[in-house]
Amino acid sequence: MKTDVPLQSRLSDRIDAARDDLVALTQDLIRIPTLNPPGDNYLEICEFLARRLKGTGFEVDFIRATGTPGDSERYPRWNLIARREGTQAGQCVHFNSHTDVVEVGAGWTKDPFGGEVEDGKVYGRGACDMKGGLAASIIAAEAFVAEHPDFAGSIEISATTDEETGGFGGVAYLAEEGRYAHVDHVIIPEPLQKDRICLGHRGVWWGEIETHGEIAHGSMPFLGDCAVRHMGAVLSEMEEKLFPALAEKRTAMPVVPEGARQSTLNINSFHGGLDEPDADFTGWPSACVPDSARMVIDRRYLMEETRDEVVGEIEAVLNHLSETRPNFRYDLRELWSVSPTMTDEDAPVVTTVSKAIREVLGKDPEFVVSPGTYDQKHIDRIGKLKNCIAYGPGLLELAHKPDEYVGIDDMIHSAKVMGLVLIDLLAPAPNPE
Ligand SMILES: [Zn+2]
Which of 22, 180, 281, 338 has the fewest CB atoms found within 10 Å of its own CB? Predict the structure, then answer.
């Protein structure tokens, strides 16, 4: 295409002109309720995206993650990869968005699946996390292809399941299938804000602690051994020693918010004693000394720590009690473990997105790390690709909340950043002759 107007300005104008299309696309995506659990309408949203992207020259591939957690005939785990080839060899830029959204919850003043537009915002469950980011990446890719069809390399847009429940039927499955082997750059448009680049996330270690006791009549507790009291001893040991020690462990990772720039521990659940039955009679548990108590803990850890150290700290608490507390017996089970991941600040995708943010927004990007995990872990660990970031419109604080929304201007700005990234990586300036 021969023209005096530079490609960058033409792309920017085209994205501005696509504003109504961007809003309508975001609304359409919100109106497909892809609640997870259980994993509703995954095929419907893939079919919707396939129709859209085939219309602009993408080839689409439907991939069902058969046999992964939650996959069933009623709730099949369908993923989509759409791919547009350029006309010459080059690099592959891959945008990955999860299509699932979390439960609606209480407190909405808007229809959670209505896609209402008000004051420059699109409302709905998944608006910022992350259908707005998915829509922005589609508009960016379409605008780039329209302005520069003779590009080098390829563009991929994947729409994947189950990020909110670990990503096993989504990105993890695709990575195991080798779907990232040829990919050079990954951008995950999670809502980290349009002027921030998210380099990675903290690690996760979930474990279940069970204390054991001995059942007896509740009127004569001295004849048994109360597992809940043993668990109480675990809790006080944690309060006295472990929580203060974790608060001392600070990280060089730029985690936001600031409060998460350290090791943290949450107690996700606590169960002890016999079940309280839904009985017509009293609904009370029977008068027994509990012989088992269980607690699920959620430990978030840092680049400066290892999984073995994290587990070792918990074992130290439990072993100390074994030595000092009569009849203390426990089991410790690992439920889930994810290493921290962080891309280097000079990785190619980071420098390219940084440059684009400076051009679109006139400011330097802020480098951040997410307190919680997202699909980057699978791309790093299984896909063996470090050159991956999260970058997208919306405010993380709104994710999973009532009246979730995404700003339309934010989506436009992010789409322009993504479009410039495509120019930079797939349409390098020709050599002067
Ligand atoms: Zn998300």
Answer: 281
* Ligand 1 centre distance from Cα of residue 214 (Å): 44
Question: pLDDT for 31-71, tens place per residue?
Answer: 999 999 999 999 999 999 999 999 999 999 999 999 999 99
CATH label, 7-201+340-426, candidates 3.40.630.10, 3.20.20.70, 3.40.50.1000, 3.10.105.10: 3.40.630.10
Q: What is the whole-number distance in angstroms between the Cα of residue 377 and the centre of ligand 1?
A: 13
Residue-level pLDDT at 2: 52
- Is the pLDDT at 428 greater than 80, yes or no? no
Cβ–Cβ < 8 Å for 126, 391: no
Q: Cα(226)–Cα(216) distance, rounded to whole angstroms?
A: 9
Which residues are placed with Cβ below 5 angstroms of ligand 1, an ion?
Answer: 129-130, 190
Domain boundaries defined on the chain:
7-201+340-426, 203-337
Cα of 300 vs centre of ligand 1, distance in Å, is: 18
Beta pairing, strands 203-212 & 330-338: antiparallel
Q: Residue 133 Cα, ligand 1 centroid: separation in angstroms?
A: 10
Query: For the segment 291-333, what is each residue's pLDDT rounded down to a tens digit?
Result: 999 999 999 999 999 999 999 999 999 999 999 999 999 999 9
* Element of type H or E holding 228: helix 227-237
Average pLDDT over residues 360-386: 95
By annotation, the residues acting in catalysis are 100, 163
Consecutive H or E run containing 310:
helix 307-324
Centre of ligand 1 from the C-alpha of residue 394, in Å: 11
Torsion of CA 392, 395, 396, 399, to 10 degrees: -100
Q: How far is the CA of 254 from the centre of ligand 1 (A)?
A: 19
- pTM equals 0.90
